[in-house]
Amino acid sequence: MTQQSEIFKKVISHAKEYGFIFPSSEIYDGLSAVYDYGQNGAVLKNNIRQYWWKAMVQLNENIVGIDASILMHPTTWKASGHVDAFNDPLIDNKDSKKRYRADVLVEDYVAKIDGKIEKEIVKASKRFGDAFDKEAFINTNTRVKDYQEKANAILKRLGKSLEAGNLEDVKALIEELEIACPESGSRNWTDVKQFNLMFGTKLGASADSAMDLYLRPETAQGIFVNFLNVQKSGRMKLPFGIAQTGKAFRNEIVARQFIFRMREFEQMEMQFFIQPGTQKEWYEKWKEKRLNWHLSLGMGSENYRFHDHEKLAHYADAASDIEFKFPFGFKELEGIHSRTDFDLKSHEEFAGKKLQYFDHEKNENYVPYVVETSIGLDRMFLAIFSNSLQEETLEDGSTRTVLKLPKILAPTKLAVFPLIKKDGLPEIAREIVSQLKWDMDVAYDEKDAVGRRYRRQDALGTPYCITVDHQTLEDQTVTLRERDSMKQERIAIDQLSDLLKEKLDVKHFLKQL
Ligand code: ATP
After folding, report:
1. Nearest to 54 by CA among 347, 409, 317
2. Last residue of a domain, one of 170, 195, 220
């Protein structure tokens, strides 16, 4: 097993063992690519959602939030293009009978070339030491340049073929690159076919009158169909945004990699309505703003990169992904799309109703353009969780497993321990819990030795622990222990609340935006 898959396995088992994520309906052996969030996962997920909502809605006076339904009139999906074009190209390996996304097979091949480039860079940086100029090396080293040209040519051809619906060429590309099935190792492939990803359902009691519906595959359309409702009732002026978080459903062909690709997942999306012609400027602005949001969590700028799309969706005139370094490599975490006026115009046409904005300054009506930011909440959860899970070797040679979550997102902010279960210490500890629980998520733990209790909280990502001991009886101070540094200090009980509120103030993080 590679080191990467070893790490990823640890992430999955840790998530289950500590009540973050369970397979759905596990007693029936689970349901493929569907997961449940446990007692700690639900809180962490809520905290991520709130962090996004605060940054997008609360801190921007021209962005408002809504909560649209999962079920929508079925014509919505005709207008949006999902009925005709929300397809993935699939291919089967005849020997293993395994099904793959044809585009992902090619992209994985390209990722291997990228890996080779990375290796060359690491090798060269070791060779040249401090004098190493990465940029110059990439631009001049012939091997790296060859790799890059090859990767670009492959992606360009894939993009072109997919855009033109030329599935024969996608298959030809897979054959030319000699891509083999990871399972059987054979290159015995079927033709590439299109597969629609929407889940169907029915509305209505009797079979003849029932209406065919879809579970929404994205939350964005709930925003578009409400564009005028929000604009008029909120007297919104361009540019303005509408945000929402909510469930989306996709019948993914290959649903693997834990919560990275699920069939039921949650999105956090924002559609920013702008004057036509200003889309390039806003697209660049939102790319920068969204990257800053990620960086504000302090998970290391080296773990993010932009990937500008060659292959554009039917609605976009520019698109870029913010990719994150997951345990299985750099993959899409968020998409920023310049969606033009495609959606509103199309809804105008299908609904036969105007979806236009009256611009008082220009004294004219027009359909606004849109720049969208779209991030998967579950993918964000995985990014944070996998990045935070660390094994550390301590000075005394022992090891600890610690979940170094950004403090403000941790499901439990503070754990309070009495050193022993007598002498009045539990009563003081419980009193501290009952005072602080109004402001933060607090846990009480009196089981096992204090060292083991610290380890348990480290594994849960709890940033602070307090221990009440015999000295507390004398001077009303407790030991405050910090998760990452493991430093301990004595603090007066009556100063705890202010101190912790200051340390856990979300403002310090969001101010970096
Ligand atoms: P991918 O190429 O990985 O299938 P996408 O380009 O289809 O993703 P979008 O339609 O742009 O994704 O959706 C926006 C965001 O929603 C993605 O960046 C991702 O974070 C999230 N997302 C999309 N599909 C899934 C899924 N099946 N499971 C979890 N999150 C998803």
Report:
1. 409
2. 195
Cα–Cα dist 325/319, whole Å: 19
Contact 413, 433 (CB under 8 A): no
Name the residue of 32, 374, 375, 380 to mutate for ligand 1: max ligand atoms within 8 A of Cβ. 374
- 306 and 319 in contact (C-beta within 8 Å)? no
pLDDT at 1 over 60: no
In a domain, 183, yes or no: yes
Question: Are 383 and 324 in a shared domain?
Answer: yes
162 vs 160: CA distance, rounded Å: 6
pTM beyond cutoff 0.70: yes
- CB within 6 Å of ligand 1 — which residues? 218, 250, 252, 261-262, 265, 267, 332-335, 374-376, 378-379
Burial class (CB in 10 A: 0-12, 13-18, 19+), 490: exposed
What is the signed CA dihedral for 454, 481, 19, 444, rounded to 10 degrees? Answer: 90
Average pLDDT, integer, range 305-317: 85
On whether both 67 and 167 belong to a single domain, the answer is no
Give the amino acid at 15. Answer: A
333 C-alpha to ligand 1 centroid (Å): 8
Torsion angles phi and psi, residue 185, rounded to 5? 80, 0
Does one domain contain both 223 and 149?
A: no
251 C-alpha to ligand 1 centroid (Å): 12
pLDDT digits (tens, 9 = 90+) for 263-275: 999 999 999 999 9
Secondary structure (DSSP) of 373-394: EEEEHHHHHHHHHHHHEEEEE-
CATH number at residue 430: 3.40.50.800
Whole domain around residue 108: which residue ranges? Answer: 87-195
The whole-angstrom separation of Cα 264 and Cα 36 is 10
Range 324-336 average pLDDT? 95
Q: Point out the domain boundary residue: 172, 195, 218.
A: 195
